[in-house]
Design a protein that fits this description.
Number of strands: 9
Strand content: 5-15%
Shape: globular
Order of helices and strands: HHHHEEEHEHEHEHEHHHHEHEH
Radius of gyration: 20 Å
Number of helices: 14
Distance between the termini: 40 Å
């Protein structure tokens, strides 16, 4: 009965977004020219067979060489106005507004702090990068940042590619981050990982020594990929986790409009393969070289990140002996953001990060 109630609630909440953009299918190879060479479109034929093979090969190479794929020189050009941090993204998209990275900084105030000097000094060294969900507005997760401050942890809320201040002219939602344009989606997710690493560069420059990360929905996917490839991140708390990026898009109710574009040209298995390099399951073995501290939160009645796909992640962790903490909650994806359920995530994430930073 509870499952039926939550599922009905989830569907109602998902249908409130009436401005989803159904972008037609495109291979999007031009977005990956740095990895495919010049003019990749010329090497494809009419039925897309060559494009498939190029994308399959790119993903296999990216996974094998992921330390290179998800790395870039340290960011050194920062602008900070006292609240907002801005720096250039290493990925240059065709959209001018998407190239600068924006992050809102929430430092811990030590003024009037009556705690012991040692605790205050520890607080000055702790910070968390916060990644909201897909299509989050500019105020999303600001409350979580304030709660982190209350436990003496600074927060840096990162705007994901194509979100809020990074939204190209003419767009209402962040549809360009996840769409039926395969190459642009790949580029956007890689860009997000590199942007996180740039944010960590800045935090270290400010003197922070113990840095963690937390993400929700697609933010959890980006947070996990960054966590795997940046060992400066000591702890990660991921809310709504899954295994394969393509499978989530194919099955989830939040991305049914994206699937309609994809299925005009690809099968489910092919979608998994063209987005395998941005899938958490591809990197569990790599994470074992330095596992650190991790928390996975999954919703039992999630229709956007189906539990069956989350189980694939847990099974892969078990296969490699990765003993991360897990929380399985009896509600869904959209309902997690509602009262009182959102307080559960906040409590779990804050408790975990406070313990391990």
């Amino acid at each position: 009965m509870l499952r039926n109630v939550i599922h009905r609630w989830e569907r109602n909440l998902s249908q409130r977004d009436v401005n989803r953009m159904a972008i037609p299918f495109e291979w999007g190879l031009d977005y990956l020219s740095d990895h495919l060479g010049r003019s990749p479109q010329r090497r494809t034929n009419g039925n897309g067979r060559a494009a498939r093979e190029l994308l399959f090969a790119l993903n296999e190479r990216a996974i094998h060489e992921s330390d290179h794929f998800f790395s870039a020189p340290a960011v050194t050009e920062f602008a900070f106005d006292g609240e907002w941090l801005t720096f250039p993204s290493h990925v240059r998209s065709p959209y001018t507004k998407n190239t600068p990275v924006h992050a809102r900084y929430f430092p811990v105030s030590t003024r009037g702090n009556m705690r012991a000097t040692s605790e205050v000094e520890r607080a000055r060294r702790r910070a968390v990068v916060v990644l909201p969900q897909w299509n989050a507005d500019i105020e999303s997760h600001v409350g979580l940042c304030a709660l982190l401050n209350r436990i003496n942890v600074a927060a840096l809320r990162l705007s994901l590619p194509y979100h809020d201040r990074r939204t190209p002219e003419g767009l209402v939602r962040a549809d360009y981050m996840v769409s039926a344009n395969v190459g642009r989606t790949l580029q956007a997710c890689r860009q997000a990982v590199l942007d996180v690493r740039g944010a960590v560069d800045w935090l270290i420059e400010q003197g922070y020594e113990r840095i963690g990360i937390t993400g929700t929905s697609i933010g959890s996917c980006i947070a996990f990929l960054a966590f795997v490839h940046d060992e400066r991140l000591r702890a990660g708390a991921d809310n709504h986790v899954s295994s394969y990026f393509g499978d989530v898009v194919w099955e989830g109710i939040s991305t049914s409009h994206v699937r309609r574009g994809l299925e005009t040209a690809m099968t489910r298995d092919e979608v998994r393969r063209v987005w395998l390099s941005i899938s958490p399951n591809a990197y569990i073995e790599k994470l074992m070289r330095n596992p650190r501290h991790g928390l996975f939160i999954s919703a039992r009645y999630d229709l956007s990140f189906p539990p069956s796909l989350s189980r694939l992640l847990f099974e892969e962790c078990e296969r490699h002996g990765l003993a991360y903490e897990r929380r399985l909650v009896p509600w869904g994806h959209y309902t997690m953001g509602k009262t009182p359920f959102k307080f559960y995530f906040g409590y779990q994430a804050l408790s975990f990060l406070n313990k391990h930073l």
